[in-house]
């Protein structure tokens, strides 16, 4: 997963829910030095009895926000969505000579 174009990651999930698996895997895919390199990561853990749906919001360097519906998406689909926009930004950087 291409993470160098991510600036903000916000998550909210119940760790005991089976639907939280996607969020946990996404957070595990972030590099260990993500915060040191300037990425803002906010995680809110919901109580066990919470019925609130899981939330994953990703913001890119160009200002685009992705609000991903984790009730229907698996980790591979989330990675595809994030990588799709990251590849677009990588092409723009390449064309600009950065």
UniProtKB/TrEMBL annotation:
It is found in: Mitochondrion. Keywords: Mitochondrion, Ribonucleoprotein, Ribosomal protein. One of its GO terms (molecular function) is structural constituent of ribosome. GO terms for cellular component: mitochondrial large ribosomal subunit. It comes from the Eukaryota. InterPro entries: Ribosomal_mL53 (IPR019716), Ribosomal_mL53_fung (IPR042776). Pfam families: MRP_L53 (PF10780). Its main location: mitochondrion. The keyword Ribonucleoprotein applies. Coiled coil: none annotated. Belongs to the mitochondrion-specific ribosomal protein mL53 family. PANTHER family: 54S RIBOSOMAL PROTEIN L44, MITOCHONDRIAL (PTHR28236), LARGE RIBOSOMAL SUBUNIT PROTEIN ML53 (PTHR28236:SF1). This is Large ribosomal subunit protein mL53. It comes from Lepidopterella palustris CBS 459.81. The lineage of its organism: Eukaryota, Fungi, Dikarya, Ascomycota, Pezizomycotina.
């Amino acid at each position: 997963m291409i993470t160098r174009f991510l600036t903000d990651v916000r998550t909210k999930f119940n760790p005991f829910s089976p639907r939280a698996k996607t969020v946990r895997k996404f957070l595990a895919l972030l590099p260990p030095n993500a915060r040191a390199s300037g990425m803002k990561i906010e995680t809110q853990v919901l109580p066990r009895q919470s019925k609130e749906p899981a939330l994953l919001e990703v913001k890119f360097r160009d200002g685009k926000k992705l609000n991903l519906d984790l009730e229907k998406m698996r980790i591979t689909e989330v990675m595809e969505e994030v990588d799709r926009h990251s590849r677009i930004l990588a092409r723009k950087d390449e064309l600009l000579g950065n």
